[in-house]
Amino acid sequence: MHFTEPVYRNPYWPTHPLLQVTQGCTHNKCKFCTMYKDNRFCMQPMEWIEDDLKELSRTTPDARTIQLLSANPLVMTYDRMAPILEMIHRYLHKIETIYTQGRVSDLKNKTADELRKLKELGMREISLGVESGDDWTLERIHKGVANSEAATRAYRPKVDSPMRGAYRAVDTCRETSLCR
Fold first, then answer.
1. Residue pair 118/111 in contact by the 8 Å Cβ criterion
2. I need a surface site. Which of 79, 102, 109, 139 has the fewest CB within 10 A?
3. Does the predicted model carry a pTM greater than 0.85?
4. What share of the chain is helix, strand, coil (3-state, %, to 5)?
5. Phi/psi of residue 10, nearest 5 degrees
6. What distances in angstroms separate CA 148 from CA 6, 38, 135, 152, 170, one per listed residue?
7. Is residue 164 domain-resident?
8. Is residue 110 one of the residues assigned to a domain?
9. How large is the average pLDDT for residues 36-58?
10. Helix 46-59 and helix 78-91: axis angle, to 10°?
11. What whole-number distance in Å separates Cα of residue 180 and Cα of residue 49?
12. Which residues of 121-138 are buried (b: 16+ CB within 10 A; e: fewer)?
């Protein structure tokens, strides 16, 4: 498996196996986070992703869930992410749920239709690293996003997307009004 150390798994998702599709974090400026300080952001080569999926098909062929790593795979364009999700299904036939995470700003490059299609491809939940709904706090921790942008991007009315129910923040409960 091609993993760039350190490997961080979202503790809210009881998923196994893990598949690294990006390395590091595109922002990498949050004051509180030291996870990827020594890793430059880059996309994992498609060959590595396919090699890892081949290995997973041998070691965990009955997997029903999978988590995409690293800090924010959601930054990938639809045209890059969709083939990866299709490849997951090609090698792991029983996959029902694909989890990933990202920054609120990663949603800028996804249309409502693309989000709907990603959900159809198995991406059932996206965890957004919002951290707080308080602009003063967001500025102090160098999050690079305001609460209003987070709310606008995370909540898209009439969009059946993976974000519904997945707007996560330390001071926001799982099912906020943003997710209904």
1. no
2. 79
3. no
4. 35, 15, 50
5. -65, 120
6. 32, 31, 9, 6, 16
7. no
8. yes
9. 91
10. 20
11. 34
12. bbbbbbbbbbbbbeeeeb
Among 103, 121, 102, which residue's Cα sits nearest to residue 161? 121
The total of structural domains in the chain comes to 1
d(CA 89, CA 81): 13
Please report, as a single letter, which amino acid is at residue 177. Answer: S
CA–CA gap between residue 152 and residue 22 (Å, rounded): 25
Q: Which two tokens stand for residue 44?
A: 């994992």
Domain membership of residue 80 (yes or no) is yes
| C-alpha dihedral sign at 107, 113, 119, 124 | positive
pLDDT digits (tens, 9 = 90+) for 122-155: 988 887 766 666 677 767 766 667 666 665 555 5
Q: Which H or E run contains 69?
A: strand 65-69
Q: Which of 38, 119, 109, 116 is nearest to 71 (CA)?
A: 38
**Residue at token pair 């004051």:** 31
In one-letter notation, the amino acid at residue 127 is S
Domain coverage including residue 41: 18-128
Strand (E) or helix (H) holding 124: strand 123-128
What residues pair up with 126 in beta bridges, in sequence order? 100
Assign residue 101 the CATH number of its domain: 3.20.20.70
Task: Name the band, by pLDDT with cuts 50, 70 and 90, for residue 62.
Answer: very high
Question: Is 10 inside a domain boundary?
Answer: no
